[in-house]
Every structure is written in C-alpha cells, then in structure tokens.
Amino acid sequence: MATDADIVPETVTDFVFDLYDSVTLSQLTEEQSRFYNTVFRDLSSKYFGSSPWPNVSMVARECNGDPLFLAFYRELTHRHWHAVSRPSLRDRMEGWDVYRELFDELLEGSEEDSTASQPKLFILPEWAFDILHEFVYQFQGFCQFRTSLYNSANKHGLMGGTGAAADGDEKGSSSKKGPPNHVVENLAIMREDAAHDVWSVDTVMFYLHRLVQIGTSPKCTVPAYQYFGIFASVALSRLECLLTDYSSCLAALTPILESDTMTVSKADQETKSFVQVVNGVVSARLSLVYHAGISLLMLRRYKDAAITLGELCSYMHRGFKTGHLRQLANSDQLYKNYDRMIALLAICTQLCPQSDIVEETIAKVIREKHGVQVGKEAYTELFVFCAPKFISPAIPDFYEAGPIENVYKLQVQMLEQELKDQPVFRDLRSYLKLYTSIPISKLVEFGNAEHMVSSLKLKMRQVESNNPAIPSLKEATPKSALDIHYYVDVATNGDEIVHIDEAEKQRRFENYFFGQINQSYDIRKEADGINLNV
C-alpha cells in the first residue's frame, strides 16, 4: 500500500512531463525558461522546502524512462537538496555519482548527437552553466570538507595505527571526552575503498576538458552541446584558479575568447558568438571575469586585471542602479560578488598608477567603499575579503598523521611578499613626478634606497594583452604600466642622474560627461522624490 511519501503531487508529475517535452520535443527557449526558472522554483518552495524531490523511479514514467533526461532531473533535484540542506559526507559522495552519471550519458552519444541535423536534446544556456558551476562548487566543497576532516582527526589523535581509534578507542585522543562522533564516523567512511576515487581531480578535469573539446569543435552544431562546451570552459577556468594555476586559468578561456568565427544558432533565437552566449548569462560572465581578474592580479598583470574587472563593474553598477539586475533571482549573490570585485579592483588600480584606467563612477565607488584600506595600503585586508576559497587537490593519507598545507594562507603570503615594497614605490614615484632630473644621491636622502629606482621599473614592467577586452596569454607583450618614463645617466662629475619624462596624457572627455550625466540623474531622482504637496 502506498504511503503519503510515495504519492507524488499531480502538479509535480505534470512539471516533469512538460520539462521533458521542452528538452526533447518542443525545444522552445521561452517555454523551457519558464519551467526551469519559475515553475521549478515555485514547486520547490511549495512542496520541497525542507525535503528532497521524488527520486527518479517515481517520475520515470513521465519521461518514458529516458536515461539522459532522468540524469538531468536527478542533477537538478540533487542541486536543490544540496542548497536547502546541510549535506553530509554521504550526500557529497552521492553528488559525485550524480554528475558522473549525467556526464557519462552526455558523452556516450556525443559524437553522433552533437552533429545531428535533428538534435535530440536542448537545454537553456543558464541551465548548462548552473550544472557545470555546481559541479565545480561541489568539488571545491568536498576538498574543503576532506581537509577539515583530516585536520580534526589529526587534532584528536585518530590518524595513527590501523584505525582502532576510529572505531571508538580513545587511547590516543588528546581530548578527555574523546573525539566527536561525526569525526569518527566520517573518518571511517573516508577509509573505505569506495571513497578513494570520489571527486578525483583527474576525473573532474577529464569531464570538463572533454565537454570543451566536443562543444567548441567546428563540427558541433547542436546548441545544447555547444552550451556545455562554452560553460565547461568557464568552469575549467574557475577550477584552475581555485587550484592556483593562474596561467592555466587564462588559457582555459581560449576556446571562448579567441573563437571569433564560432557561433550558436537556433531557430527561435538569434545567432550568437561564444562571447555573446557567456555575456547573456550574467552569473557566467561574472565567474569568468572574477577568476580571470584574480589570476591576472597574481600574475602581476595589474593593468589587464583593472581593465577586465572595470568593464564588468561598470555594467553591474548601471544594472543595479536601473534595477535590471535586482530583478534576477540571485541578485543578492550578484551584489556580494560585485562588492568582491570592487575590492579586487581597488588593489589593481593602486598597483597600476595609470589614470583613467576605470570609469569615474567606479573610481568613486572604490573611494567610498575602500578608501580607508587604500589609504593605509592594507592590500592583505582587501585580498582576504575578495579572494576565492583556494583548494588543494591533494588527497591526504587518512592513516598517517602529519601537517597539511593551507593553500589559502599560502596565496595570501605570496601576495604580501609581492607587494611589500609598494609603499616605497609610491613614495619614489611621487618624488620622480616632481622633477625632470634628480641625482640618485638626493633620492637616497629622501629615504629611498638606490636599488629601488631599478626595482620600480622592473616591477611595473608587465605582460599586457594587445586586446584589453581579451585577457590572453598568446597575444600579450611586455609593457611598462608606469605613467612616467625615466632613465639613469652618468653626469660629467660622476654622479648618477635620473632623467624623468612624464608620459603623454590622453585627454579623455567621455568620463567627464558620463560623470555629469550620472550626477544629473541622481539629482533628478532626488527631485522627483520630493513631496510638493503643501
């Protein structure tokens, strides 16, 4: 006899049937967008606010048991449950099975389906991005959970021997009360053979690279596979950044940013380039630019980082001001990421002294939000606020005790080491801008070490993209990010003289006019809000 838990509401079965139809038969963008973005969220709030959706066996008949669609359904509902609950270790391991099943189904028939004239599959670009974004997010979460578990077990003396302590033996415990039960239980799970290959970084990389290879191939003409290829490239870039491989982070974006001739075509949509597809999904564009900005900063490409971040921050600033971005379902998360990018931009604009590198409106936001930190040159404080949660893919040995490296702290230390001379550089640059020539001996009297003259020039010589809109590694050349040019010559009396030639300033009037327009808009908005009734 069926219980209440086994009875699926009719509205839910109708939703599954309609979603299946939009994925395989009708393939209408607007229709699927309503199901994915509105109906699913409403049903989740109404029936599954604190419980999981029905499993695949309970809805299989609504889609004729289609294994690929059921894999999509399982991922969608698992993602919802992962968001509304506090996932256990078993839940995280189940997530690995969910994504492996989905990607295996996708790749199994990809060679034939991706070039078919009548595609058997269509999903929205934002749906494809959400899947791949969550895939990397859950991998990141599992790595952090694993590291935290190892540190806790190490702290409570559970890492030695053959695991007797994990079975409840408190002999080696440093705590009188013994280790927490959840640590003991999770440690026992991680020591199982089945846990060894869960969320393996090699397999995660394989899936992302394979999807990029198929979806960005000139032979691929099916929008669904193209979307997966495009957003797998974005997800791969994010993953490389989290793993602190910053050059690979930028290289992963090559299939998107340097494929000018590649387009995505669908009957009920206009033809779009790969870049336009990414820009059409705000969260994807934000992920791409944010992680590229972090990578450019850590690679000492401050000007490229400032230009890349400044463009998106300007777009988001206007979007929040007009209310366009506030209408999106994830507007709160977008605003948090916007704040993080502003903090990151504050670092970059301070390290790259060229004027007019960002719009005046964004420069004003930076001064309002982070003027105090910038004045104190508190770069570490800003970086801690805006940096992602870096991870280590290394799998700890759960039978041996020992320290495990904190990747996040290591990146902070690397940035501190790189920027330790910046206060001296700023003072030196301010002195050089006051003179056309000055003896080095005089600079030394001002408190600047002699070697800092050459160090400043060396540090500010950065790799700069030939196309500022594309943070490429291939089309980039070393250039100076300084706003002054200087060289050292030996005078007749033997003194070393620094000759300074301030770089030619480009007069840019558009920033002034944009600033005045925005100011007028604010004044008019305030005036409209005044109550004139007496």
TrEMBL record:
Q: Where in the cell is it found?
A: Cytoplasm
Gene Ontology cellular-component annotations: eukaryotic 43S preinitiation complex; eukaryotic 48S preinitiation complex; eukaryotic translation initiation factor 3 complex
Matching entries from PANTHER family are given as: EUKARYOTIC TRANSLATION INITIATION FACTOR 3, EUKARYOTIC TRANSLATION INITIATION FACTOR 3 SUBUNIT L
Keywords for this entry? Answer: Cytoplasm, Initiation factor, Protein biosynthesis
Q: What is this protein called?
A: Eukaryotic translation initiation factor 3 subunit L
Provide one Gene Ontology biological process annotation: formation of cytoplasmic translation initiation complex
- Please give the family membership noted in the entry: Belongs to the eIF-3 subunit L family.
Q: How does this protein assemble? A: Component of the eukaryotic translation initiation factor 3 (eIF-3) complex.
The superkingdom listed in its UniProt entry is Eukaryota
> What is the annotated role of this protein in its UniProt record?
Component of the eukaryotic translation initiation factor 3 (eIF-3) complex, which is involved in protein synthesis of a specialized repertoire of mRNAs and, together with other initiation factors, stimulates binding of mRNA and methionyl-tRNAi to the 40S ribosome. The eIF-3 complex specifically targets and initiates translation of a subset of mRNAs involved in cell proliferation.
A GO molecular function assigned to this protein is:
translation initiation factor activity
One Pfam assignment: Paf67
